[in-house]
Amino acid sequence: EAQVTQNPRYLITVTGKKLTVTCSQNMNHEYMSWYRQDPGLGLRQIYYSMNVEVTDKGDVPEGYKVSRKEKRNFPLILESPSPNQTSLYFCASRTVSGGYNEQFFGPGTRLTVL
Amino acid sequence: GNSVTQMEGPVTLSEEAFLTINCTYTATGYPSLFWYVQYPGEGLQLLLKATKADDKGSNKGFEATYRKETTSFHLEKGSVQVSDSAVYFCALSGPTGGGNKLTFGTGTQLKVEL
């Protein structure tokens, strides 16, 4: 089954404790992206990657890091989480060939930073 | 920059009522337009899309027409069901950044009651 998976689905942590949210897709997609969803703000892009070893900032990159060492994986790293990073996070992927193609979203990771 | 404005929710309707969720956009060039749906506890799924002016996207009884003259992409359904209860996001893509970045509205929660 074609899918985007994220782990963990739920995470409660404390300020300053480094964490990683994993994202993996099995569709051989070139493009991957991370979004955060906050009430009244919709989804905002954090980082994106056009392919392996190619990453760039989205609209709200502060406090986050990403890496793209393999095509299928795109982890989101919070080196020193703060309470304002409490949010619902989504990973997405799509192919870039043949014009516009649908972005596929993972199920989301709900993060609480105390 | 690009932006999407959609009507605030929540919207509460009785089953079989007519649904309209308004969406307007600001973008340079000719973006592609989308409606995504988020069911409780799940990630976003593409509901429908339109890639050029006057295109009509449709799926599962939902429709939206790309109106360039009014920069709008309103979502409609003639007869809603309880199973349509979800959050609906209007979004646009491109033409910058290779058409990969999605810009979302804030989302409209729909609740359908018996």
Report on the architecture of this protein.
The complex is a heterodimer of chains A (114) and B (114). Chain A is built from no helices and eleven strands. By secondary structure, chain A is mostly beta strands. In chain A, strands 2, 4, 5, 6, 9, 10 and 11 form a seven-stranded mixed β-sheet that branches. In chain A, strand 5 and strand 6 form a beta hairpin. The model of chain A has no long low-confidence stretch (mean pLDDT 93). Helices cover 0% and strands 50% of the residues of chain B. Chain B has no helices and twelve strands. In chain B, strands 2, 5, 6, 10, 11 and 12 form a six-stranded mixed β-sheet that branches. In chain B, strand 10 and strand 11 form a beta hairpin. Chain B is globular. The relative contact order of chain B is 0.34. Chains A and B meet through strand 4, strand 5 and strand 9 of A and strand 6 of B.
Task: Please write out the topology.
The complex is a heterodimer of chains A (114) and B (114).
Chain A: E1 4-7, E2 10-13, E3 19-25, E4 31-38, E5 42-51, E6 54-57, E7 65-66, E8 76-78, E9 87-94, E10 104-105, E11 109-113
Chain B: E1 3-6, E2 11-14, E3 19-21, E4 23-26, E5 32-38, E6 44-50, E7 56-59, E8 62-65, E9 75-77, E10 86-93, E11 102-104, E12 108-113
Parallel strand pairs in B: 2-12
Antiparallel strand pairs in B: 1-4, 3-9, 5-6, 5-10, 7-8, 8-9, 10-11, 10-12
